[in-house]
Input
Amino acid sequence: MPSRPTLSHALRLLALAAALAAALPARADDYTDVSQLVRNGKLADALTKAEQYLATKPRDPQMRFLKGVIQTESGKTGDAIQTFTRLTEDYPELPEPYNNLAVLYAGQNQYDKARTALEMAIRTNPSYATAHENLGDVYARLAGQAYSKALQLDSGNAAVAPKLGLIRDMFTPAQAATKGAKPAPAAAPATPAAPAPAPAAAPAAPPASAPAPAKAPEPAAKPAPAAEPVAPTPATALAPTAAAPNPAEKDVEAAVNAWAHAWAAKDMAAYLGAYGKDFDAPGKLSRKDWEKQRRDRIVGKASISVKLSNLSIKVDGNKAEARFRQDYKADALSVSSRKTLHLVKTGERWLIVKESTGA
Amino acid sequence: MAPTCRAPARARRFFCSMSLQVCMGRRLSSFLLIAALACASLPTAAAPPPARKAAPAARQPTAPARDGQAENRLIEAYRLVGQGRRREALAHTERLVRDYPQFQLAQLLYGDLLATQVRPGKAVPGRPEASAPALNELQQEAQLRLQALRERPPPGTVPAQFLALAPSARHAIAVDTSRARLYLFENGPHGPQLVADYYVSVGKQGVEKAAEGDMRTPLGVYFIGSNLDPKSLKDFYGAGALTLNYPNPYDLRRGKTGSGIWVHGTPPEQFARAPQATDGCVAMANTDLARLLRTVEVRSTPVVIARQLQWVAPQSLQAERQAFTSQLQAWQQAKRSGDLQRLLAFYASDFASYDKSLADWTPVLQREVHKLQGRNFALKDLSYLRWSDSADTMVVTFGEVAEGARTGPVKRQYWLRQGGGAWKIFFEGVIG
Output
């Protein structure tokens, strides 16, 4: 899992399924725009846009949250703390602002405050994996401080403040609270900064990817109208390794690209048709329930973009494994993750039998 | 003054040879295990130390200044750990370190409890290696504190050294160095009663001081000399210092050297010090020392420092007390008789009162006898403190008040039991 090893040091950015879209469809574009600007590093523009929005809707939690993220990214820690603190006062039921407050406090070595904030986040949402993860880091730091005091060591030189996972987008509590069993969901991390975030990583092994509905990585979507040419042009995205891939690899590559296209285009027939009937649906869902879930998750999105890169394919007889990096954007959510598809040749087609996220 | 116990400018230096080691793996802290085991056998009633005179019920919910309180709270946390109630233990310990941030043992437990909250496989920065010297010292401190609370002196008993305390002596102190514990007694009509006891640190090289600079704490019967004004002391000594009269006449007789043995506090950065940390002094937490500073009297308060105190029922000392009283009365009779030779028979041939030999001392005795002119005299406020090591000694203090007089000098004698069982005086002096 690429992103985990550096947990305590690398910025763990967890972009959670944004999907406030459902609740506030009309605003989705504004959020998306601001998020996009943040992602592209245009923090000043993002802030301007957020402020404009807030001028008319000063209490809007989602935009205030984004503003806090922008301030955090801009290094305006004091402002960011203020923004998130006010959010916790106005919307004490939302865990994300608490989490991000904790990130900021931890960055200042104020671990007691960070701990309190994280405990609040967990109180509002007990299955909040990011907060649990961050709390673990904070406990480790507090323990380290206590040990230093116990042994009378200079804690001053001890350690660089840990980077905890900052949440970039809010999602509704309802979504977060999904199945208790899999805490993973909540934490679909997309670490922009770090190269290969393993989203659903920690949790369940193989099927993890698909299941995590709300959060997860799998998006599908249609090319965002305006900008990005969503359509993953296979050519670009997939450039396989060597010069002359063998024919089977080419077929697998085509199948994978078709799958991504269908997803982004919200072409449910083609998308679901890319999965073989032996597909190992995640989370012990029946095929029927899984299909319904995918429909619910995909059709409701205003826009979906799926881009694949670093594709590598291994073919062994009638079996194939395709590994790639998937950049998924849907409305305000943006998740980058590693994905592996296992395919089996059935007749003339390569069909997906297993889908997993993570390295 | 040049106390033996003058310490390095920063106590911290003591620990500095240790390097910070970061342990990557997760292992259950060995310390936590020890604590849990130790507590399993800790009787529930043991933790609260002996009832002490409650200070006027001033309710101070967060007042950390009470003597003994920090230890009680630590022990309570251990008990919670021992019962598997780690969440409560964590909350409890968190409050403890907030009130006593310099209490290293509490910080260690706090670190351990926090570390148990960290996901396995994740590093805890700064977690000490099990072999770290400073960690071992803390573990010893914990063991000693627990042991002293588990193995309480039987109720109503007193150290065997307290053969008889003067009625005017309001307090007495005994230190058991094997338990790193100082016991405070209040003396009253029913004899000495244990009212409090505290963890203490002794010399780096242990006990039985013999020579200057040997970094050992002396063993013997001492008295508090003066209560030094903390303003005149370095921060290192904490809340203050009580001086002890090391070397006493028995020490001098045996050629022991050194000086400046004090009972003092701890530096600002340490709530308590390691069990063996001083240059020979007895060091204790400032909150605990503060109680001594408030309550004990200079000059009359005895301080017995023993490797291991022997706790006995006061009645069991009766026979010995009477036997020695007879001995003392015989001396009194001889002195009163005016027969100098008879009186001198009570004095050891190698008698020494500071720089005076028996020959030098004889004229002094002669003058005293002459002055009495056969009048009787009373021994007021008698105290006998017995000290036995390779020899049997008795430290006797009394006011010598002649018939018809209202007051008289306070004298102290050191008696040594001879081969045949007879006691002889090897030191005598006026102390007030």
Chain B touches chain A at residues 12, 15, 18, 20, 97, 101-102, 104-105, 107-108, 110-112, 114-115, 117-119, 122-128, 132, 134-135, 138, 269-270 (CB under 8 Å). The mean pLDDT of chain B is 85.
